[in-house]
Design a protein that fits this description.
Length: about 90
């Protein structure tokens, strides 16, 4: 049995180089800061939408949160008082 070979990947969109989306993604400049709280399992998922959102909207922050011993996901963020949680 032979080991499966790993394909070279784009370091921005994480897709195989021959399927890289970076050149085709629209870029949208927003004045609004967007903060995405990402589940740890999406971080390495090949179709991670948070990663694509960050590539399309430069004013986007993606934070991956991990659970502690109490099974709650916690990640302190500095949010302004007028932030709209979703």
């Amino acid at each position: 049995m032979t080991k499966a070979s790993h394909r070279a990947r784009c370091y921005d969109c994480w897709r195989p180089l021959e399927l890289c989306l970076c050149a085709r993604l629209p870029r949208v400049a927003t004045r609004t800061r967007i903060v995405v709280i990402q589940h740890p399992q999406e971080r390495t998922h090949p179709f991670g939408t948070a990663r694509l959102m960050r590539l399309c909207m430069p004013n986007t922050e993606v934070h991956t949160v991990y659970g502690g011993l109490d099974r709650y996901l916690t990640h302190p963020l500095a949010l302004p008082a007028d932030a709209a949680p979703r």
